[in-house]
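Example record for the data management plan.
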Amino acid sequence: MTRESDTPPMHEDRASAKALERIAAALERRAGVQEEPCDFSAASAFVFAARTATLVAVPRVNRVDIALLRGIDQARDILLANTERFAQGFAANNALLWGARGMGKSALIKAAHATINLRHAGSPAFKPLKLIEIHREDIEGLPALMALLRGKPWRFLIFCDDLSFDGADTSYKSLKAVLEGGLEGRPPNVLFYATSNRRHILSRDMIENERGTAINPDDAVQEKISLSDRFGLWLGFHSCSQDDYLAMVFGYAEHFGLALAHEKIAHEALEWSVTRGARSGRTAWQFVQDLAGRLGKAVE
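Corresponding structural encoding:
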């Protein structure tokens, strides 16, 4: 038989319930729980913050007009066509842009994104393509990023610049699982573009180490270099000729209205490339910045 004094008053039950609710709310705030990681309509480009699994809007993207990218016409046309198909909701391939440094790999990806959005800007049925950059050191957060984007009404182009792996780094396995072979796979509204100086992304030392230490060297090496096979589209970028280099310089000079004789620009540009030890799009851009500064012009 229960005595009346053993039964807690009803007001104490209500107080306990409210206390538990406050504790639960505090724990959720401390854990950083939020309904939406980002307002996708706020911008056309974002950077993924892996620590908080959120997206930071980029109001103004650092890029150049696609018409100024010279000497990479074939790669430009192929990447534009692939991006166009994806933006329209058709099948498209993940792309790896590899090769010589400073030849416009990352610049082409950013320019292609802008070109596709500009091409369809007047279409009411077209939702702008979103560009999301994930840093190399955050690549293990790629599955979390995919989860954020899955099922959203926009289409997303994920971009990783200078992707490479060295030594005992195993984060490349996260990338392999996301691109192809994972249980969920890549969401249909997401495409992945990466740039790298290496065709197989992994360092030669990393591959050679497997040959020397693995029980079955061939299988171990194949397992590592299979990462690049996850990219259906490979675009190679190679050091440019002198003519292509000068075409880049003249294109920039004309675009920014740098009034100087072609002969003098060519002479100074070639001299600049010798001091830099390379002819590339980056070298051409750096020369034009120097020239514009000497002529008292701003380059934006």
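Summary line stored alongside the record: The mean pLDDT is 82.
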